[in-house]
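Structure (tokenized):
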């Protein structure tokens, strides 16, 4: 198993890797998403998750850390993950687990944080 750190271009977190340089023979991909940081670093855009760059992908596991995020944000990411898996040529198996759900914020609290 190899660990490759991928990050947001906007926040400069992690290591930026050109899509063509990603491991083309990756069959299993497991990663964690800190929901609040992900949304803040991607201008609320879950549209491009990059799964298409893993041509041999068969299984994807995502741990979503929900602390400080709204339920709507988490659901949007889960929908984007399902869509990315559905449109991938291999249609990889997707497993998503939520952590820290007890610390989700309401939509009203989320708007107050953004002000």
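Design, position by position:
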């Amino acid at each position: 198993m190899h660990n490759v750190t991928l990050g947001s271009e906007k926040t400069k977190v992690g290591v930026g890797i050109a899509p063509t340089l990603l491991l083309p023979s990756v069959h299993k991909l497991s990663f964690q998403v800190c929901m609040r940081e992900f949304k803040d670093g991607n201008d609320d855009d879950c549209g491009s998750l990059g799964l298409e760059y893993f041509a041999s992908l068969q299984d994807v596991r995502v741990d979503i850390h929900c602390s400080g995020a709204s339920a709507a944000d988490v659901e949007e990411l889960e929908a984007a993950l399902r869509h990315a898996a559905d449109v991938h040529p291999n249609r990889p198996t997707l497993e998503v687990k939520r952590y820290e759900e007890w610390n989700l914020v309401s939509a009203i609290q989320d708007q107050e944080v953004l002000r």
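Reviewer-requested clarification: The beta strands are 28-34, 59-65, 93-99. The radius of gyration is 15 Å.
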